[in-house]
Amino acid sequence: MNYHFIAIGGSAMHNLAIALHKKGETITGSDDEIFEPSRSRLKNYGILPEKQGWFPDKIHKGIDAIVLGMHAKADNPELLRAKELGIVIYSYPEFLFNQTQLKTRAVIGGSHGKTSTTAMVMHVLKHSNIAFDYMVGAQLDGFETMVGFSGSSKLAVFEGDEYLTSPIDLRPKFHLYKPHIALITGIAWDHINVFPTFENYTEQFSIFVDQIEEGGSLIYFEGDSHIKKIVGNCKKNIQLIPYNTHRHIIKNGTTFLLYNGSEVPIKIFGEHNLQNLSGAKQVCLKLEITEKAFYKAIQSFEGAAKRLQLLGQNKKLTIYSDFAHSPSKLQATINAVKNQYPRKEIVACMELHTYSSLSKGFLRQYKGTMQMADKAIVFYSNHAIELKRLEKIAPELIADSFDKEGITVINEKKALKNALSFMEFENSVLLFLSSGNFDGIDLKGLSKELLKKSEA
């Protein structure tokens, strides 16, 4: 098959393009900007566009289908040409569903934890030598791409994102997958540029539940009142499976799962991850993985990229990077680290990066979220605010919104690096918390500098 990707440089899009290329399909694509690591990865597989930009003459009747990315606009010249020629146009989630219509689909949704939970399920399936198709929103050890297809598989495991599908399809992505097994980790308001009220946002999860195939299963975190309300109103003929935080103990900085009279050591930690693990276990049981096999496999799971990812450590300083950026994710991660390292100083450095977090009306949602940090720093880039065409934010408003005594607010990259460089780290844990990149800071490089300085 001959597929053309409009907006091939996106994180999800370039992974799908590579997965199809590896499958033997013919891939072309276009984009007006392609950043790393997408550029190098596409180049490595010989499918990097020669020039950046949109070229309608690339669209011809020899193309079997278009895959349309969210970065493109509705008036994209290549998209308009494809419509003119009557070429089939798929959004990213439409394409995934089309490829897996005859397979059992497990879809993990939720405002937070869906990537980690999906990664756990994938890890256990791979450890159990079970073939499956997949899509996950982060790079995982043992998986070359974030999307994969197996011709022999009968299963598909997808991370279910609630953001919009494409510029010409404004449904949330997870409405298109029609799962046989669905999981909801938790609901906390996000994406206010698309869902202006919390009621509108939670409605998307009700619709997701309505898309579950008849006779399927809904696995859900029973500690979330918003999910329980959706479950209480569910009219579908599906099995309801609640879960909670896995029983555990912490010894000398290691978390052990309590199972069948034994203590099972794991490499991840935090109450939110123990909730994700319980949910992943229920998905695996529905996929006919035994409890014994699950506990054996989960011991070697180290987490997804930027999900409490260890950047480095020495006797004085440990540094983690985490995707936490929304209020619920931020609080859960800081609390998890404080519980894991109760005798260490926790320095939390978070970036306001998303449309929601940089919106004045949303900032109050962060109140109290950094209370467990011994030192709190909030960074934001004025350039990011300009790109999103939002109102400028005064540092004082951010400090008031977080309501954390002694909080530091910084809006220049150089000032942030200086503040961290002059900080004395002694028995400390430093957290970088963002879905962005701190305005282009090389976190691994900075971490090496801070670790070296702390040893001096």
Please name the fourth-level CATH homologous superfamily of the largest domain: Mur-like, catalytic domain
Radius of gyration: 22 Å
Largest sheet: 7 strands, mixed
How helix-rich are the residues, as a percent range? 25-40%
Quick tags:
6-stranded mixed beta sheet, alpha/beta, 22 strands, Rossmann fold, 7-stranded mixed beta sheet, Protein-Tyrosine Phosphatase, Chain A, single chain, 456 residues, UDP-N-acetylmuramoyl-L-alanine:D-glutamate ligase, 32% helix, 3 domains
SSE inventory with pairings:
Elements: E1 2-6, H1 11-22, E2 26-30, H2 38-44, E3 65-68, H3 77-85, E4 88-91, H4 92-99, E5 104-109, H5 114-127, E6 133-135, E7 147-148, E8 155-160, E9 164-166, E10 169-172, E11 181-184, H6 198-210, E12 217-221, H7 225-232, E13 239-243, E14 248-251, E15 254-259, E16 262-266, H8 271-286, H9 291-298, E17 309-313, E18 317-322, H10 327-340, E19 345-352, E20 375-380, H11 382-387, H12 395-402, E21 408-410, H13 413-421, E22 428-433, H14 443-455
Helix pairs in contact: 5-8, 5-9, 6-7
Can you put this structure into words, describing what you see?
- 32% of the residues lie in helices and 23% in strands.
- Strand 9 and strand 10 (169-172) form a beta hairpin.
- It has a seven-stranded mixed sheet with strand order 7-6-8-5-11-12-13, sandwiched between helices. It has a six-stranded mixed sheet with strand order 17-18-22-19-20-21, sandwiched between helices.
- Helix 5 crosses helix 8 (271-286) and helix 5 packs across helix 9.
- The protein has helices spanning 11-22, 38-44, 77-85, 92-99, 114-127, 198-210, 225-232, 271-286, 291-298, 327-340, 382-387, 395-402, 413-421, 443-455, and strands spanning 2-6, 26-30, 65-68, 88-91, 104-109, 133-135, 147-148, 155-160, 164-166, 169-172, 181-184, 217-221, 239-243, 248-251, 254-259, 262-266, 309-313, 317-322, 345-352, 375-380, 408-410, 428-433.
- The model has no long low-confidence stretch (mean pLDDT 95).
- The N and C termini lie far apart (59 Å).
- The protein has three domains: 2-91, 3-Layer(aba) Sandwich (Rossmann fold), CATH 3.40.50.720; 100-298, Mur-like, catalytic domain (UDP-N-acetylmuramoyl-L-alanine:D-glutamate ligase); 309-455, Mur ligase, C-terminal domain (Protein-Tyrosine Phosphatase, Chain A), CATH 3.90.190.
- It has 456 residues and is of the alpha/beta class.
- It is built from 14 helices and 22 strands.
